[in-house]
Amino acid sequence: MSATSPPLPSTPMFPLQSVLFPDGYLQLQIFEPRYLDMVARCHKAGSPFGVVSLLEGAEVRRLDPQAEGGFVRERFNPVGTLAHIESMERPQSGLLHLRCRGGQRFRLTSSHCLPHGLWMGEGELLVEDAAVGVPADLQPAAELLRTLLHNLEQGAAAADLPLQPPYHWADCGWLSNRWSELLPLRAEERQRLMQLDNPLLRLELVADQLDRLQIRPA
Questions:
Q1: pTM (2 d.p.)
Q2: How does pLDDT run across 34-69, given as a tens digit for each residue?
Q3: What one-character-per-residue DSSP string does the chain give?
Q4: Interatomic CA distance for residues 146 and 151, integer angstroms
Q5: In this structure, are strands 79-92 and 25-30 parallel, antiparallel, or unpaired?
């Protein structure tokens, strides 16, 4: 841990098949006992949990047929994003619907699994993206995202849209993160983009993907 990095105290982890970006939105259905208790505690305390992308295993804990009484191994990336609960609903007993927003990124230096299957991790918080304006040659990425949002607004409820206000169209970090969530990327590509500390470089890589996919302004 570097001397200038704030520590991440012991925090519950939620390994997922997806990658959460800062300011991104995440909707979850919680039904596993290990997470029902964790989410209730986080919501009551107003504290976040960590989202980390799985490298091995599944989102739902499963018995391992090769290990008597054991579970399938879970392994995840050490760099993840804090998830802050914005709303929680309980449609029925044993089921929670969550709506979360991505916060600060972190890097784990250690993690351990509790007896009931919940992972806890400790490490350091990563520096938040500096505010970097979108240069002229990358403006098409902002125009395309505005157009995409306008099209999505025609057929979906505002709360269900993948892009939520506040919008920061002139900020490289925000713009690149939203595209990184939406583009059809492999999990490892999405993870690499999330881990990049340079928001301008992240947006340049996103622009390369847009060109590769031939996504251009009309």
A1: 0.91
A2: 999 999 999 999 999 999 999 998 888 877 677 665
A3: --TTSPEEEEEEEEEESS---TT-EEEEEE-SHHHHHHHHHHHHHT--EEEEEEEES-SS--B-TTSTT-B---EE-SEEEEEEEEEEEEEETTEEEEEEEEEEEEEEEEEEE-TTS-EEEEEEEPPPPP--BPPGGGHHHHHHHHHHHHHHHTTS-GGG-S--SSP-TTBHHHHHHHHHHHS---HHHHHHHHH-S-HHHHHHHHHHHHHHTT----
A4: 9
A5: unpaired
The count of C-alpha atoms lying within 13 angstroms of the C-alpha of 177, restricted to the half-sphere facing its C-beta, is 32
Cβ count within 10 A of residue 204: 16
Tens of pLDDT, residue by residue, the chain (218 residues): 455 679 999 999 999 999 999 999 999 999 999 999 999 999 999 999 999 999 998 888 877 677 665 777 899 999 999 999 999 999 998 999 999 999 999 999 999 999 889 999 999 999 999 999 999 999 999 999 999 998 888 877 877 888 889 999 999 999 999 999 999 999 999 999 999 999 999 999 999 999 998 877 66
Q: 47 with 10: CB under 8 angstroms? A: no
**φ, ψ dihedrals at 119, nearest 5°:** -90, 140
